[in-house]
Design brief:
single chain, mainly alpha, about 60 residues
């Protein structure tokens, strides 16, 4: 009976180590260099300032 318990614990430890060594990597895109920030989207800038139009905040959309 003692031999059966030892085998159970040995198997449980091996299983735990096997499952614990799995790792998941999630990529969210390329990292930005230090000091460089992503530009704010025009719609978010409009919401922050309370403006009626996002056109002044959109680069390349000049009228």
């Amino acid at each position: 009976m003692k031999n059966l318990k030892n085998r159970f614990w040995l198997g449980a430890c091996i299983l735990a180590l096997g499952l614990g060594s799995c790792s998941v990597r999630v990529r969210t895109g390329r990292p930005l260099p230090p000091g460089q920030e992503k530009p704010l989207p025009p719609g978010q800038a409009k919401k922050i300032t309370g403006s009626q139009s996002a056109a002044p905040y959109a680069p390349g959309h000049n009228k």
